[in-house]
């Protein structure tokens, strides 16, 4: 009897994941790709807004690319402002405070751009808000090109957190959401903004958002997010190294054009571009465990330490006599290890760049370093076909490994 049976829905989703993983194996030396792994289809809605709770502090007033959240003023509203705050929120850890200026509601606008929609289909907008004092707020869904407004809703915002919502049919394939905040200069807070297909659903939770690519291709059936290709960015040089920030919101990429670029994951927005020097090959990047610091190793034999929040170059570490192929932070973030083509590994104190130790024993390029979870042991990989070195590396006085491990190939 044949054991063949059709794949069930969960198995088909797993097959899609494996296909995405296989795609990652294909060499792509000049492009940076990211794949989104499907989530289980148990959510009530697919939110078309990325960063709906403002947990990712993306640029808003100074967003030059007008992607995602943006705020802008005109005429009397030019001095309006927005800020992330942790003192007020309905979910997560922060909300967006809006301090508008202007006599007309359009003088200061908080906008989300863009939202893929299906023409004629109903979509619900829901969000949570509160104000310093009771005040009006106009909210609009508009075509991305301003050709038509699908809904213009005047709301009264109270001093307590409350959910506000409306439902309207989409007149265009791409829309934007406007909060016209001026007219009243009373500050207000926004949080947990949702735009989803269909009538209002109560009690939805901030547990899932959909990528724009997957929503535009959706046939309205299964609400799970299929694997989808992150918008491809072709850089000016080969991409040689990538690393995720600990919170998964940012990807750092290094290339042969001497630049390190920090990308926002959900919309491929270029957050920072860090320039190390004239045409230096960036060979390795690594985030500190708290995500505040980035280290890079490069062909110019140096290690650089950067502050992630503003891209500030904190220090350059000198000491290697060959290209630095790998860098890695200790679990507590206090120590940085670097491996080099000079066959050595160096341990640095992150706070001031002091060289703590130089580990020797490899007889060829050191290509990789990694700390153990407790930070007491360091492993290294080398072109000499060994892991570790003579007895392994001792970190902070711990006993060494008993042997070296040749790779037989």
Properties at a glance:
single chain; 409 residues; mainly beta; Jelly Rolls; Methylamine Dehydrogenase, Chain H; 2 domains; five-stranded antiparallel β-sheet; 5% helix; elongated; disordered N terminus
In oligomeric terms, what are we looking at?
Answer: single chain
How many distinct helices? 2
Apparent shape: elongated
Major sheet summary line: 5 strands, antiparallel
Could you characterize the architecture of this molecule?
The protein is mainly beta. The chain has 2 domains: 149 residues, Galactose-binding domain-like (Jelly Rolls, Sandwich); 172 residues, Methylamine Dehydrogenase, Chain H (7 Propeller), CATH 2.130.10. Helices cover 5% and strands 41% of the residues. The protein has 2 helices and 29 strands. The N terminus and C terminus are likely disordered.
In short:
The protein is mostly beta strands.
């Amino acid at each position: 009897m044949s054991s063949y049976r059709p794949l069930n829905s969960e198995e088909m989703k797993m097959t899609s994941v494996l296909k995405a993983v296989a795609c990652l194996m294909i060499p792509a030396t000049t492009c940076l790709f990211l794949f989104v792994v499907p989530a289980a289809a148990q959510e009530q809605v697919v939110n078309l807004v990325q960063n709906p709770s403002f947990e990712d502090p993306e640029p808003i007033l100074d967003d030059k690319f007008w992607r995602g959240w943006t705020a802008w003023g005109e005429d009397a509203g030019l001095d309006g402002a927005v800020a992330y705050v942790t003192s007020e929120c309905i979910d997560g850890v922060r909300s967006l405070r809006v301090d508008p200026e202007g006599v007309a509601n359009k003088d200061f606008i908080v906008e989300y751009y863009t939202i893929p929609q299906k023409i004629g289909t109903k979509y619900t907008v829901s969000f949570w808000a509160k104000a310093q004092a009771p005040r009006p707020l106009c909210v609009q869904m508009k075509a991305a090109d301003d050709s038509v407004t699908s809904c213009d809703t005047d709301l009264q915002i109270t001093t307590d957190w409350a959910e506000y919502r409306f439902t309207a049919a989409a007149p265009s394939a791409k829309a934007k959401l406007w909060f016209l905040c001026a007219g009243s200069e009373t500050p207000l807070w926004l949080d947990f903004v949702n735009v989803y297909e269909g009538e209002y659903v109560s009690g939805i939770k901030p547990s899932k958002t959909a990528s724009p690519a997957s929503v535009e291709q959706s046939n309205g059936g299964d609400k799970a997010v299929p694997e989808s290709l992150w918008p491809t960015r072709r850089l000016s040089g080969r991409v040689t190294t990538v690393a995720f920030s600990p919170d998964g919101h940012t990807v750092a990429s290094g290339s042969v054009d001497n630049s390190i670029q920090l990308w926002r994951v959900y919309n491929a927005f270029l957050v920072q571009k860090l320039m190390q020097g004239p045409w230096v090959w960036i060979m390795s990047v690594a985030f500190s465990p708290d995500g505040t610091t980035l280290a890079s190793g490069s062909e110019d034999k140096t290690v650089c330490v950067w502050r992630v929040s503003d891209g500030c170059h904190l220090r350059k570490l000198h000491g290697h006599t060959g290209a630095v192929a790998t860098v890695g932070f200790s679990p507590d973030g206090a120590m940085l290890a670097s491996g080099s083509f000079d066959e050595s590994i160096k341990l640095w104190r992150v706070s001031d760049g002091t060289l703590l130790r130089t580990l020797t024993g490899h007889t060829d390029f050191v290509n990789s370093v990694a700390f153990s979870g407790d930070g007491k042991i360091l492993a290294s990989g080398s072109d000499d076909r060994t892991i570790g070195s003579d007895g392994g590396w001792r970190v902070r006085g711990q006993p060494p490994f008993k042997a070296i491990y040749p790779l037989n190939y």
